[in-house]
Specification:
By secondary structure, the protein is mainly β. It has helices at 2-6, 17-22, 102-105; strands at residues 11-12, 25-28, 38-43, 57-64, 87-90, 93-98, 114-122, 134-137, 144-149, 165-170, 174-179, 182-188.
């Protein structure tokens, strides 16, 4: 337990653009809700699409109700007339607006519990793509906390080693970090 507690030596709540650029996919808001809009950002740096200069499309669907399989997939693989295309933002960064809500975009039933959005980003001809499939968690309304870094579980550090921890929360007024039951930091907002 002591090693597990050593994971949280430093809490960094503000996510810098440098850290975001290192991620392949991230969202705004960071913790998307099924019944709200979300912007998905794809960073092609380090992927097979890094040097691709054409339109990037996404084959996308949902994982719902605890199923391991994709559902509510938009269109058929390679059908560029219905699959969403991404908006280039420069420096290998692209965005996809999912609106008016995730549920409406994917035509999910009101009773469906949406666990994740699923993505494969691909070239126009489908010959170049991301692999493996990319999944983005979708959260229920209420109190939610996600620790996005470090992303290894379990994560071990040497005594005295400092690491950065990034976390996001919904419906939280404050977040507190404890190491061995001792308060290290509390942040508001």
């Amino acid at each position: 337990m002591k090693k597990l507690n050593q994971i949280f030596l430093l809490l960094v709540v503000a996510i810098t653009s440098t850290i975001l650029q290192a991620q392949i996919v991230y969202t705004e808001p960071a913790l998307p809700l099924a019944d709200e809009a979300v912007t998905v950002f794809f960073n092609a740096t380090g992927t097979p699409l890094e040097s691709y200069t054409g339109i990037i499309y996404t084959h996308t669907g949902l994982k719902i109700n605890g199923s391991a399989n994709w559902s509510n997939v938009i269109g058929e693989w390679g059908d560029n007339t219905v699959q969403p295309d991404l908006t280039p933002l420069g420096d290998h960064l692209y965005s996809l607006e999912i609106a008016p809500t995730i549920r409406a975009f994917y035509n999910a039933e009101a009773s469906d519990v949406i666990d994740q959005m699923a993505f494969v980003f691909r070239s126009a001809d489908g010959g170049t793509q991301t692999s493996p499939d990319i999944f983005v968690d979708v959260y229920e309304a209420g109190l939610n906390v996600s620790i996005s870094s470090p992303d290894l579980n379990p994560y071990f550090v040497d005594p005295g080693e400092e690491i950065s921890v990034m976390a996001d929360a919904l419906n939280s007024e404050t977040m507190s970090l404890y190491v061995d039951n001792a308060l290290v930091i509390t942040v508001a907002g």
